[in-house]
Design goal:
265 residues, 12 helices, alpha/beta, binds magnesium ion, globular, binds adenosine-5'-triphosphate
């Protein structure tokens, strides 16, 4: 099997940027990569450098009402008393809806399930959860999942297939507190390996400041990425950061990838 990586962290720390850069590097290595945007406000396509025209055409799976009805037997928002299939067929969805970013990298945008939050017992959640289970347990691509600060869509059985939870933190205690919460949520569902990358590092002291705190909660740091003004330019231009960032940033992400490889099955 190949690496199944979940990327998580506080809002704005750089989860999407890191996921996109890792996807680019894994793709360049020649392995098929599936990047899953599981953030409720998806913008991974932008970070991957998908042109606007193609981005505008993306419909998150959670909004494909006909598909959800076809697969689960119940239309989202309709009578919730109805029974829906808990194991809808999902095997064809990556091929049908995965957007080809490069010849090796494909993107799947899940979208969010509004009603009821993460625990929502509804057909759209049933489909997404089953699909995530499929991409984690049954498929052979390198999987990179850009998640929000939680473990939504990861049921117990699925989480066991996740090799590593990479928590992105930035210098500052707020993102470290979120990391602690993520670690505890992760261990609740059965993900034991939780590591951190410190992003937006300006000076060594930034790294030192969070190292102790992270060590105390049992999250080892496996990489650090400098604060790079080119990221902001990339964001402004709608380009992939990979095309614009400095050599030092690329080295840092490459180094991170090598460390991540150590956790691959
Ligand atoms: N190393 C870096 N140096 C400078 N800016 C960065 C760096 N990493 C990310 N950024 C910038 O920080 C902002 C947030 O990054 P990103 O969208 O990747 O974070 P996120 O954790 O996915 O956010 P959200 O929680 O909103 O999904 C973006 O404008 C991005 O360009
Ligand atoms: Mg994001």
């Amino acid at each position: 099997m190949t690496l199944k990586l979940a990327v998580s962290g506080k809002g704005g720390v750089g989860k999407t940027t890191v996921s996109a850069m890792l996807a680019g590097l894994y793709g360049k290595r020649g392995k098929p990569v599936l990047v899953v945007d599981a953030d409720p406000s998806p913008n991974l396509a932008l970070a991957l450098g998908v042109p606007k025209q193609a981005r505008d055409k993306i419909t998150p799976l959670s909004q494909m009402l006909d598909l959800i009805e076809e697969r689960t037997g119940v239309r989202p928002g309709s009578s919730y008393g109805k029974m829906f299939k808990l194991n809808p067929e999902v095997e064809d969805l990556v091929d049908k809806f995965g957007l080809r970013v490069t010849d090796k990298v494909r993107l799947l945008v899940l979208g969010s399930v509004e009603a009821g939050g993460s625990g929502c017992f509804c057909p759209e959640n049933a489909l997404l959860r089953r699909l995530v289970k499929h991409v984690v347990l049954d498929r052979d691509e390198v999987l990179i999942m850009d998640m929000e600060a939680g473990v939504e869509h990861l049921g117990r059985g699925t989480a066991e297939g996740v090799d590593l939870m990479l928590v992105v933190v930035e210098p500052g205690l707020r993102s470290v507190e979120t990391a602690a919460r993520i670690k505890s949520l992760a261990s609740d569902v059965g993900i034991s390996k939780v590591v951190a990358v410190v992003n937006k590092v300006r000076v060594d002291a930034d790294l030192d400041a969070v190292r102790n705190e992270l060590e105390q909660i049992g999250i080892p740091i496996i990489g650090s990425i400098p604060q790079d003004p080119a990221m902001v330019s990339a964001d402004l231009k709608g380009s992939s950061p990979t095309d614009l960032v400095s050599a030092a940033t690329m080295d840092a992400v490459r180094h991170l990838m090598e460390r991540i490889d150590g956790y691959a099955p």
